[in-house]
Amino acid sequence: MTQHIAVVTGGSRGLGKNAALKLAAKGIGIILTYNNNADDAQQVVREIEQKGVKATALQLNVGDSASFPAFTRAVQEQLKTVWQRETFDYLLNNAGIGINASFADTTEAQFDQLVNIHFKGPFFLTQSLLPLMKNGGRILNVSSGLARFCQPGYAAYAAMKGAMEVLTRYQAKELGARGISVNIIAPGAIETDFGGGMVRDNEQINQHIAAQTALGRVGLPDDIGDAIAALLSDELHWMNAQRIEVSGGMFL
Question: Does 202 map to a domain?
């Protein structure tokens, strides 16, 4: 059986790192991207290789769409040299940042940065990588619970995630002819360094979220990494065009 390969954006830390490790634990080869911390990325590669799975790391700023053709060529080269393959199987559009600003105070620069990273980036990166994706492959986009419920300070961020949820359905509709399924996962609040580590490090915020979550605690990276690995499993190949919230039941 040919080994599956996943491209994971933002795979050097946080949820992307956890997802890459969980996918690798299932024997899936990993091409992960990092924005500026090559050392962290190479450490993740070493952890994956210790599992007996091939992995490589490539630099990518998902907010810079002009760089996507060169990145796609780099992916093509890695597929040939590391895996002797011309295609990969899974794309996880995970890379992102958090900006906390009220609607009234959000600047145009902040808005543009969020558009470029969370919507324009995944839109055109996926488009650029399509020729390298195997027919019957899988795309998993990343949304947020904030696209369903509202917390002050995330109007622009959540709007981009809402756009990704609509795009996911259109991608599923248009890529179905190639047998490619497209879904989107919406994590709730997770204890990572995302957004300055606010959920992880601020005990008051952590307790508030836990009290509003049916399962009584804030999410952990493993909760999301395990869900991503499950959503990209062969058993769920028939699930398509779906938004799957993985939040422990926040704000029900």
Answer: yes
